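Illustration: Fe-S cluster assembly sulfur transfer protein SufU.
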Amino acid sequence: MSSNVNLDTLYRQVIMDHYKNPRNKGTLEDSLTIDMNNPTCGDRIHLTLKIEDGKVVDAKFDGEGCSISMSSASMMTHAIKGQPIDNALKLSQIFSDMMLGKEYADDIDLGDIEALQGVAKFPARIKCATLAWKAMEKGISNENK
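Result:
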């Protein structure tokens, strides 16, 4: 068995773990609220962010969609919690580059997010994976206006 097959299996397990046991599922009171959907497949996300002093203090999501969109939201909220806004946006850019099959900065540990890199092979699923990230970017850019 090749290591690629083992890696693919591991990545699928990580994605399914985040889908079945989502981190940060729910909503935050008195927070920035962003609702987005992907009309092509029906994925929907309700993202709430608590931002204080230029930092993402907390992040939660709710919604419905495929395993890729929901696990990506779980991974994203986990990764950006406690991060300065600039780091959250940098992570989003790295994730976007990864989804587009581009070289991406590897100076930040992506953790479980790396499990989604295989989505880049399926162009129809990229919007599923990036939905939560686009919602986070929209929320932060609206907050900074």
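Reading the tokens back as a structure: The chain has four helices and three strands.
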